[in-house]
Amino acid sequence: MPFKLPFVIVGTDPAVDIEIAVTLAAGFHYKVLSVAIPLVTDANAANRDVLIVFTRGSDVLFSMSTNVAITASLTVALNYAVGVPLASDVGLNQTIPLPEDLWLTGADTITTITTNRQATDNFGAPVITVDRRRA
């Protein structure tokens, strides 16, 4: 069987103070390999915690929280991936494990829920790497 490259989905860059929300295109099955999300926190003192949520309709398929509180005035790389340990570099670069068999279908969503999000906290566009197959 020939080697198949992963498919990359770049989500929309949300406005300031808006969570990540990606709805997958219909007609495919997606095995999630990784999700990379940049976050720039504002100067207001608060310990933020980012929960990533994978849903199908109203059913939560998987959710996982960051492992270290994210404080003010930081640029943070949130890296959710298969096969990585739960780790942090003083909150600036966090790796969060994903399950090996996380399969999504068209219309499933990937969202974030941030505890203590501040008015000018700013997520960047998420980059989602998947094994994509026709449904």
Can you tell me about this structure?
With 135 residues, the protein is mostly beta strands. It has a single domain (7-134), classed as Jelly Rolls (Sandwich). Helix content is 0%, strand content 53%. It contains no helices and 12 strands. The strands form 2 sheets. Strands 1, 3, 6, 7, 8, 9, 11 and 12 form an 8-stranded mixed beta sheet that branches. A 4-stranded antiparallel beta sheet has the order 2-10-4-5, with no helix packed on it. Strand 7 and strand 8 (93-98) form a beta hairpin. The relative contact order is 0.39. The model has no long low-confidence stretch (mean pLDDT 94).
Short description:
The protein is an all-beta fold. The protein has one domain (about 5-135): Jelly Rolls. The chain contains no helices and twelve strands.
Task: Give the topology.
Elements: E1 7-10, E2 21-23, E3 28-40, E4 49-56, E5 59-65, E6 75-82, E7 87-88, E8 93-98, E9 103-105, E10 109-115, E11 122-123, E12 127-134
Parallel strand pairs: 6-8
Antiparallel strand pairs: 1-12, 2-10, 3-6, 3-9, 3-11, 3-12, 4-5, 4-10, 7-8
